[in-house]
Design a protein that fits this description.
The protein has helices at residues 19-32, 61-79, 90-105, 141-144, 148-156, 172-184; strands at 9-14, 37-40, 52-54, 57-58, 109-113, 130-133, 164-167. By secondary structure, the protein is an alpha/beta fold.
Length: 186
């Protein structure tokens, strides 16, 4: 696909609750400052295209369909090289389609909401410049860990070297972990 996630400035939004709201507000703030911005949120309520926002609005269904078709063709080529039990997941394909759609729309900024966690999430391929950690609660403990600090560690794993971390309301223990990770990644 040519790494479409590198054709816009990515902002990564991770956390337990509030991710879609932070994504929408960030897009709105960027637009108010004269920048073009799009986003990727989940889940959708009726249509997959609801997940991709261009300047605050749902992407045109035809443009989304074109991105999905492009990803489907690429996925078929990739899967031929994988072990028979390995497949590209629905979320991975939807995420790739969102990146293609945002890049094709020519947005300057892409505000990307993580799906589950962070470290192993399909959105973790973005070279984010800013990461927002909205909140931490006990969610998906079977995959992310049994404590808020363990879960925060999974979500903070998306933080890139030399980027900015923005924290929502988090516990003192999570704030301390966030400060430590931010120091380690400068």
């Amino acid at each position: 696909l040519g790494e479409p996630q590198r054709r816009f400035v990515p902002v990564h939004v991770v956390g337990t609750n509030g991710k879609s709201s932070v994504t929408a507000m960030t897009i709105a703030l960027l637009r108010e400052h004269g920048r073009t911005a799009g986003g990727y949120v989940s889940p959708h309520s009726e249509r997959w295209s609801e997940r991709v926002r261009i300047d605050g609005e749902e992407i045109d269904r035809e443009r989304f369909a074109q991105a999905v078709e492009r990803v489907a063709r690429a996925a078929a080529r990739v899967e031929r090289r994988l072990d028979p039990e390995d497949r590209i997941t629905q979320f991975e394909a939807a995420t790739a389609a969102a990146f293609v759609a945002l890049a094709e729309a020519g947005v300057e900024f892409g505000v990307i909401e993580a799906g589950l966690g962070g470290r192993l999430d399909a959105t973790n391929v973005i070279p984010s410049r800013v990461t927002a950690l909205t909140s931490i609660g006990l969610d998906h403990t079977q995959w992310l860990g049994g404590t808020e600090v363990e879960i925060a560690g999974e979500k903070l794993a998306v933080l890139r070297e030399g980027t900015t971390l923005v924290l929502g309301e988090v516990s003192a223990a999570v704030a301390a972990l966030a400060a430590q990770v931010a120091r380690e990644r400068r």
